[in-house]
Write a structure and sequence with these properties.
Serine Threonine Protein Phosphatase 5, Tetratricopeptide repeat; 33 helices; Spore Coat Polysaccharide Biosynthesis Protein SpsA, Chain A; alpha/beta; 8-stranded mixed sheet
Length: 658
């Protein structure tokens, strides 16, 4: 005779989740017990549609009491308990029935896949949980929160034997951002855990969960202290110790205590030498500390690790795409773009949905400069067979100001599905940047005054006419935009547009971060259109102090678009007030090198290097400059003394080294 399985649940206001959960077990479990702790939505009605026995239970801030109320009503031989934001994976139904017929097992640890993040980018994190056990009267949950029953069963039955249900999988959606926000889980859990710890201060497991909740609440110093307290003196065989160590590393890292974090990484690897996550986070922290050699070793070790045990709760990709991506970042630090590209491609192949790798590949292809080559490479790497894929590529290219290619991918995606308002706005901006103003205006007119994107649409309508030099069209639109109620910063930028091409009168405008960010975006778009004079006219309206403070960002923009002399002026202006900025010196050195002023470039590289000797780019650029100078000197010497074979040999050796 087959064993009967009772699904036991506790719920409250779960109408968004419970149907998915119950559908996943329909026809697999023999009865459904739902204990409701005060729902005001359609949760109970949905449960009854699936034949559930629904029982009301007054919530008393104790999860165990509610769970035990469900066990009292269960009549099956086995108990499976799920939360409403979980579901049984489709391939696990037959496995569940088979496991329930095992005679010599008292309970099972089950693999759970936690989905974390948001709908735009969701990660998976596996773990092991104890969710299936035999139904006996003396097996009852203990603990007000993060309630436990596995230990209780062993206390009641010292001969009890547990197994890991290898092929049984639960999917958990409760860590998605929208779920956490909707239920205020962080604050609820912190309050309950604090109360429970006051009653049981020596309970390590509670303290571990309390530290985790503090970390999720971004109280990082407190989290690290609680997690360290939970770890001190712990049995090394404790099943959650790997996760505990990882959270200590994360808490110290977030609290900006890298030395302590790396100390825990080394301690943890002494206990768990195959723990890929610790190698990965060790690499991240070393990278941030500019200990690049150590970071490289950590990431390479992460890649070499074997399949991770489920109780490590490994973060997806530490043995693959994440570490490969970070190795690409390291290669870029050393200006080795070919090696960086190789790692980014490997990262994308390991996880085709890992957008950071795709963004980095696209950036290295320089889509602004060579859209044809970029498109050819992207089409070889990726399959753009869905609207989502095309729209994502369009968005990436849009962010990188490659407007012509961005428009192509956006339109491809829009042909296949209805476009969201943001995508329509991106398309309009791309059209403006291609000087297709009438088409852009038709899209912008579609945003009515009540639309949340109306102010942005109105601003871009102004830019449409401003780029064309139609001042009479600009002024009434500016007045309409002011009528919406702009911030002081945004209003100041819009006034600069309105006053073009007038010169500064008085002290000029001083912008904050918001205004300067908007102005830099308009400058970039003007330079992208070849409107250098318009860009400079806007800068004429700034106060000297504001311009000096932001001159580095302005100079880098002009450098990006090949205006070397103008870039040099603004970077020099920034350097007057900030003479020890190595990044500014480095960019000036690059400009001088492009102007073939190699001696000045070398001096600037050396000054940058003296200020920041931990930055590899300065070394690499200086080495390349000296190699270039050496080849040029050798070429001059050969022209003067063609009969000397030693010079010819030196020249050939120099070219072979390239």
């Amino acid at each position: 005779m087959e064993s009967r399985i009772s699904l036991c649940m506790i719920v409250k206001d779960e109408e968004q989740n419970i149907r998915r959960c119950l559908q996943s077990v329909a026809g697999t479990v023999d009865e459904i017990i739902v204990v409701d702790t005060g729902s005001t939505d359609g949760t109970c009605q949905i449960a009854r549609e699936f034949g559930a026995l629904v029982h009301s239970f007054p919530w008393n801030d104790n999860f165990s009491d509610a769970r035990n109320a469900s066990l009292e009503l269960a009549t099956g031989d086995w108990i499976l308990f799920l939360d409403a934001d979980e579901e049984l994976a489709g391939e696990s139904r037959e496995v569940l029935r088979r496991l329930a017929n095992e005679k010599n097992v008292e309970g099972y640890f089950i693999k759970i896949i936690n989905y974390v993040g948001n709908e735009g980018w969701v990660e998976t994190c596996p773990d092991l949980v104890f969710r299936l056990f035999k139904n006996r009267k003396d097996y009852r949950f203990r603990g007000a929160i993060h309630e436990q029953i596995a230990d209780v069963i062993l206390e009641r039955n010292s001969q009890a034997r547990y197994q890991i249900a290898e092929d049984l999988v639960i999917l958990h959606y409760g860590y998605l951002d929208r779920q956490i926000k909707a239920k205020d889980k962080k604050n609820r859990n912190l309050a309950l855990l604090s109360q429970e710890l006051n009653r049981n201060p020596d309970n390590r497991h509670l303290r571990y969960h309390y530290g985790v909740e503090l970390y999720r609440a971004e109280r990082f110093d407190e989290a690290a202290a609680e997690l360290v307290r939970a770890a001190n003196g712990i049995d090394p065989n404790t099943i959650y110790l790997p996760k505990l160590l990882r959270y200590i590393v994360l808490a110290y890292h977030a609290a900006r205590k890298p030395e302590q974090a790396l100390e825990i990484v080394q301690l943890g690897l002494g206990l768990f030498p195959n723990y890929a996550d610790l190698y990965y986070y060790g690499g991240l922290i070393s990278y941030e500390q500019k200990d690049y050699g150590r970071a490289y070793e950590f990431f390479q070790k992460a890649l070499s690790m074997p399949e991770q045990p489920a109780h490590y709760a490994p973060f997806g990709g530490t043995r693959g795409f994440r570490s490969l991506y970070q190795l690409g970042q390291l290669a870029e630090v050393f200006l080795n773009h070919e090696e960086a590209m190789r790692y980014y491609i490997l990262s994308l192949r390991d996880n085709p949905h890992f957008t950071p790798a795709l963004e980095s590949i696209t950036r290295l292809l320089k889509p602004q400069e060579d859209p044809v080559y970029t498109k050819k490479c992207l089409e070889q790497l990726c399959e753009f067979c869905t609207p989502q894929a095309n729209l994502l590529m369009g968005q990436i290219l849009f962010r990188q100001s490659a407007y012509k290619l961005a428009l192509e991918y956006l339109e491809r995606g829009m042909d296949q599905q209805e476009a969201a308002p943001e995508i329509l706005l991106w398309k309009a901006i791309c059209l403006i940047q291609l000087r297709r103003y009438l088409e852009a205006l038709r899209i912008l007119e579609g945003f009515g005054p009540d639309h949340r994107l109306y102010p942005l649409a109105k601003l871009n309508k102004i830019l449409c006419f401003w780029f064309q030099g139609k001042r009479r069209k600009v002024r009434p639109l500016v007045e309409e935009l002011f009528a919406l109620g702009l911030s002081q910063d945004t209003g100041a930028v819009v006034s600069l547009l309105q006053n073009y091409p007038g010169r500064r009168r008085g002290p000029g405008v001083t912008l904050g971060d918001e205004g300067m960010s908007l102005l830099l975006d308009i400058l970039m778009r003007a330079l992208d259109l070849g409107e250098k004079e318009r860009a400079e006219s806007l800068l004429d309206g700034l106060s000297r102090e504001c311009l000096s403070k932001n001159a580095r960002a302005v100079g880098q923009l002009f450098y990006r678009y090949g205006h070397l002399k103008t870039a040099e002026y603004y970077l020099g202006l920034y350097l007057e007030a900030n003479p020890e900025c190595p990044e500014t010196l480095f960019t000036l050195a690059e400009i001088k090198e492009r102007q073939n002023a190699c001696i000045e470039a070398g001096e600037l590289y050396r000054r940058a290097l003296a200020l920041d000797p931990a930055e590899p780019r300065y070394y690499v650029s200086l080495i390349r400059l000296y190699e270039k100078m050496r080849r040029e000197i050798l070429r001059e010497a050969i022209d003067k003394y063609p009969e000397l074979p030693v010079l010819r040999r030196l020249f050939e050796e120099a070219n072979q080294e390239i």
